[in-house]
Amino acid sequence: xxxxxxxxxxxxxxxxxxxxxxxxxxxxxxxxxxxxxxxxxxxxxxxxxxxxxxxxxxxxxxxxxxxxxxxxxxxxxxxxxxxxxxxxxxxxxxxxxxxxxxxxxxxxxxxxxxxxxxxxxxxxxxxxxxxxxxxxxxxxxxxxxxxxxxxxxxxxxxxxxxxxxxxxxxxxxxxxxxxxxxxxxxxxxxxxxxxxxxxxxxxxxxxxxxxxxxxxxxxxxxxxxxxxxxxxxxxxxxxxxxxxxxxxxxxxxxxxxxxxxxxxxxxxxxxxxxxxxxxxxxxxxxxxxxxxxxxxxxxxxxxxxxxxxxxxxxxxxxxxxxx
Length: 323
Fold this sequence. Notes:
Layout: E1 2-6, E2 15-19, E3 29-38, H1 41-48, E4 65-72, E5 83-86, E6 97-101, E7 105-107, H2 114-117, H3 121-134, E8 142-146, H4 151-162, E9 166-171, H5 174-182, E10 187-190, H6 196-203, E11 209-214, H7 217-226, E12 228-236, H8 247-251, E13 256-259, H9 267-283, E14 290-295, H10 299-306, E15 314-318
Parallel strand pairs: 8-9, 8-11, 9-10, 11-12, 12-13, 14-15
Antiparallel strand pairs: 1-2, 3-4, 3-6, 3-15, 4-5, 5-7
Helix pairs in contact: 3-4, 3-9
C-alpha cells in the first residue's frame, strides 16, 4: 500500500508518498481501508519537530480518517465492512490502510460521506471538550468563537447553537463569515477589522460574552479578556507563540483562562465525547463542512494551506487507489 512517510522533521516537503507493507490486525486491533483523511494544524506543527510531542522517525502523520473496516484481530467486536471514523491509530492515517485499536474506531452514520467522517475527530472532539468539559457551557450563554470558519471553529458554532447558546463568530473572509452564519452563528465579524471587538461589546449591551473559544491565543488573548462578562472564561484551543496580557482584566471580571488539549482527555471523557458526537451526527445536528479535497500525494500542499488564516471548512486528503 501507499502511505505518506516523514524521515526527517522540517518543511512540508519532507512528507513523501512511499510504498509500505500492509498492516495486519493483532488482538484488539482493526485495519481500516482509508477513504478520506482529515488534515489538522497540529500535524503541521508536529512535522516541523518543534511541537511538544515528537514521534519517532520515520512516521506516518495523522489521527483522523474515515473508511471501512477491512479486517479485525482477536477479541474485537466491531464487524468487517462497518463504516467508521478514527480518533487515533497505531500506524498513522495518511495512508491507504491504517491499523487502529478498536477503541479508536467509531461508527460513521450513513448520512455522512467519508470526507465528512474524516472531519469529525479533532475538530468536533476538541470543540465538545472546550465547550462542555472545560468551560461547562450552558444554554442561554453567549459565546464568541474567535476563528470560526476552520474545522474546529465550525464544529464549535454547530455545537453551541445546538445547545441553545447565543453564538458570535469571527472569520477573515466574506465567504468564511457567510459559512459560520449558515452553520448557526447569530452574528459574524471580520477579525481583521480593528473595531470587531467593539461590535461584540455593543451587541451584548456592554455586558460582554460569557465565553470565548480561542483558536489563536497569541494574537487575541489580551483582548478576549476585555470582552468577557463577569465570571466569563476563555478556552484556549490554539496558539502559535507567547502573548502579553494584563492580569487585571481577568481579576476585575473574576475570569478564567482555560487550556485545552484533546490528548489529555481521559478514557471516560473520550467515551462521553464520541457518544455525544455520534448522536449529533446521526440526527443531522452536526454537519462537518469539507472545504477542500486534495490527493494524498499532495499532503505537502495541504499542510501549507491548513495553517493559513483564511480557513474555510476542513481540508481532506483522498487516497488514489490504483494510481
